[in-house]
Amino acid sequence: NAGVMQNPRHLVRRRGQEARLRCSPMKGHSHVYWYRQLPEEGLKFMVYLQKENIIDESGMPKERFSAEFPKEGPSILRIQQVVRGDSAAYFCASSQQGPGTDTQYFGPGTRLTVL
Amino acid sequence: GESVGLHLPTLSVQEGDNSIINCAYSNSASDYFIWYKQESGKGPQFIIDIRSNMDKRQGQRVTVLLNKTVKHLSLQIAATQPGDSAVYFCAEMGGATNKLIFGTGTLLAVQP
Fold this sequence. Notes:
Chain A is mostly beta strands. Helices cover about 0% and strands about 50% of the residues of chain A. Chain A has no helices and eleven strands. Chain B has strands spanning about 5, 10-15, 20-25, 30-40, 45-50, 55-60, 60-65, 70-75, 85-95, 100, 105-110. Chain B starts with a strand and ends with a strand.
């Protein structure tokens, strides 16, 4: 019974390159959330998606960041033209149901380092 | 704006003692609260949750207390063990889209 899976676990990019982070939700979960965590800080919400739909992207930077959750395959968080300030841990969570008191289960995260 | 904050950044306890981690939240409209445990290099792990229509909820060795009057949340861990050493986050759920708002975290250090 696999939990939320994320890959890669570690990603190193040079400034100006693109980063693609993948998330496979738990089996039976159709709601995916992305969060970013800076060192010694709490997680900050970025985006909430359902299959083929972005529900809430209020935490996404206006430029360079995008997310998708296609009908088939994992959810993708894409960061174009990365800068050093993008270095952080990016966590994906999934839930079975939508709005309401529904538990979100987190993956192990992808640690992005921008050189 | 909305915020969830913790009173103590670091808590050091002796093995076997009880631990209490506190959290203050500012959004009185939030109706769901969760405690997560995060070990180094890992993702947050769900510990226990509570809804706003409850004051107390117990799990295995853990209890969450909610005081809506003063907007305060606490996590009690009984008979703390070395394996409990981690950063603990409280989070509130606000709005209609399940967005979690996290506090900054408390590091729990269990001394053998």
